[in-house]
Design brief:
CATH class of one domain: Alpha Beta
Strand content: 15-25%
Structural class: alpha+beta
CATH architecture of one domain: Roll
Shape: elongated
Number of strands: 8
Distance between the termini: 86 Å
Radius of gyration: 27 Å
Order of helices and strands: HHEEEEEHEHEE
Length: 181
Amino acid sequence: MKQFIIIILLIGLMGCEGPVPRKPIKVSTGTSIKTSVARSKALLAKEEKLIQNIITKDTLHDYKPSNTGSWYYYDIKKGSTAYTAKANDVITLTYNVVDFENDTVYSMADIGILKYKADKIPLFPGLRNSIKFLREQEVATFIFPSSLAYGYHGDNQKIGINLPIKSTIAILKIEKAQDSL
């Protein structure tokens, strides 16, 4: 009888081990991610070369690099106020979109005057970052690689996939948020 109890206890203890996870049938090596990264790096290098060619040919303007990966020059620079948009400020602006062949994709009239809260705006990443460089009544032209423009998806209308763009942005008014006052 003692042996029977010991056998039942051993079976019970072995049964309490819990489920053993199954191993995956297919092991991912990450080659698709590595391929995507390599393709993105090659695309960015190609676009940066195009941007440098545009900057070299345009001797009328003094281009400056932004800290986000775009290049810009001022069309109208106002040095009187030092305030640039901060989070939650309401910004009134307009902009256009031009391709690298200088063909207008969207004019300022097409887009109209927009009023958005900074850092809460549903615009492409380059524009969202660029409005923080400008002061009220300033106008600047930016050159964006496709990764800062509409990316690999485009805008489902006039802007195709991986299209680098130029955009002239005009900040008409900045209304400071209550917590910024």
